[in-house]
Design a protein that fits this description.
The chain is an alpha/beta fold. The chain contains 16 helices and 24 strands.
Length: 444
């Protein structure tokens, strides 16, 4: 096949491509680096001639021009499946709306329930077989494109070509229009330096990891701190099966700790669904046969996760209450992030032979007024429960790590208070007494 001629026939300007969008359409922006920067700008310039165009995306780092150009939301209405820091601010300003979901179910939603008129996503350059790769957004992009009326790809040759299942790429025959971006540098997510508290928590988690374990690391300072600690540890032959690949895995690989050699599922291959990190990490993943991308319907399936022996899932949360409920996505009713794959990995790791699911948080935080608050609270008031108390396994702060599996309400209260910040323990005990989940003999 002469794919270059087909490429030329479908190549057009961003301005011409977005002419297909009509009033009331649903437009898809996929996730993270799949965000179509050039197409978004072109679509924003049609603001005055369009009304009630709805856009879906998630983990987009911004700016999103269709949002910024239309504060009245008469023309464009933006919706996110999972908030980045930028999208969180949009929600705070009433300029974006959150869509609750479990990442594993995204393809199911599109196939069975959602209407998608136009797909717009950033892809790699085309290969000799006529394929574009979704790169960092591979875990969700194909299922959206497959269920969209019109498919437009925005080519950025800096997008890594992460190989794996058929879901990581799209063939030119499935594409309606091609727009070239000019290949700007991809967004690099800042790698936050771990705090002293992050390092304390990571040191508590480290003994729960054995040689040959398969790891899922969440996002943020603590997982990155753990990656650095593992890189400096005596652990060996670790594996990767993760929703999100970040620089923590690169640190382990460079230290010779991440080999994937002992994995019981996909031995020798690290498995991922999306990737967000540095330019060096993108280069490491691109065309690397040691890593394979799969749709999140597969990566995040608890029954798939559980097939990895010694599966260790490590995630962060915002708060926990004395019943053991965990919120990782909201503070009260304020949306902070999203459900993502936390519950799936907690479930899958708990089912794994030798597996453990660990959720981490600092014991307290300081608000903008300089006041300290406990992250362990008596009970939630409007907070969205991400992981229910019936499925929480290990919970860690800088004051310790406790296993809540199978514990009674009074045992849970006792365990959680033992890892709370000391300044809040007395008032938490009083709250537990008032909630009738405290035994007088618990007092120390």
């Amino acid at each position: 096949m002469d794919y270059l001629n087909e490429y030329s026939s479908k190549l057009c300007s961003a301005e011409d491509a977005v002419k297909c969008v009509k009033d009331g359409d649903w437009v898809e922006y996929t996730t993270n680096l799949g965000f179509p920067v050039v197409l978004d700008l072109a679509l924003s310039k049609r603001r005055d001639e369009l009304h009630r165009v709805k856009i879906r995306g998630d983990l987009i780092f911004g700016p999103i021009q269709v949002v910024e150009c239309d504060p009245t939301q008469e023309h464009f209405v933006y919706n996110t499946w999972h908030c980045s820091a930028y999208e969180r601010k949009l929600c705070d300003r009433g300029l974006a709306f959150f869509e609750p979901m479990v990442f594993r179910n995204l393809g199911w939603y599109y196939k069975n329930f959602l209407r998608s008129n136009v797909f717009m996503g950033t892809v790699s350059g085309m290969d000799s077989e006529g394929y574009f790769y979704f790169g960092s957004s591979l875990g969700v992009s194909k299922c959206i494109a497959d269920n969209s009326d019109t498919v437009i790809v925005e080519v950025n040759r800096n997008m890594p070509r992460i190989k794996g299942s058929e879901a990581v790429r799209i063939h030119i025959s499935e594409v309606d229009m091609i727009v070239e971006s000019g290949d700007p540098p991809l967004y690099e997510m800042p790698n936050p330096a771990p705090t002293e508290t992050d390092i304390k928590i990571a040191n508590l988690v480290l003994p729960h990891i054995c040689d040959g374990a398969t790891l899922q690391l969440g996002i943020g300072g603590m997982p990155n701190a753990l990656g650095e600690l593992i890189a400096d540890s005596d652990l060996k032959n670790l594996g990767m099966h993760t929703e999100l690949c970040s620089d923590g895995y690169l640190a382990m690989f460079k230290a010779g700790k991440l080999t994937n050699a002992k994995k019981s599922l996909h031995p020798g291959v690290g498995v991922l669904g999306i990737a967000i990190g540095s330019h060096e990490m993108n280069q490491w993943l691109s065309d690397n046969p040691g890593f394979a991308g799969y749709p999140l319907s597969y990566v995040n399936d608890p029954y798939i996760i559980a097939q990895n022996d010694n599966m260790i899932s490590i995630n962060s949360c915002i708060s926990a209450d004395l019943y053991g409920q965990v919120s990782s996505e909201s503070s009260g009713t304020r949306q902070i992030s999203g459900t993502g794959g936390q519950l799936d990995f907690v479930t899958g790791a708990s089912m794994s032979r030798g597996g453990k699911a660990i959720i981490c948080m600092t014991s307290s935080f300081i608000d903008r007024s300089g006041n300290m608050h406990s992250r362990i609270v008596p009970s939630f008031s409007g907070d969205i429960v991400t992981t229910p108390r019936s499925q929480v396994y290990y919970l860690a702060t800088e004051y310790g790590i406790v296993n809540l599996a199978g514990l009674t309400t009074w045992e849970r209260a006792d365990a959680l208070i033992s890892i709370a910040h000391p300044d809040f323990r007395d008032e938490l005990i009083k709250a537990a007494e008032a909630q009738r989940i405290w035994l007088p003999s618990n007092k120390r």
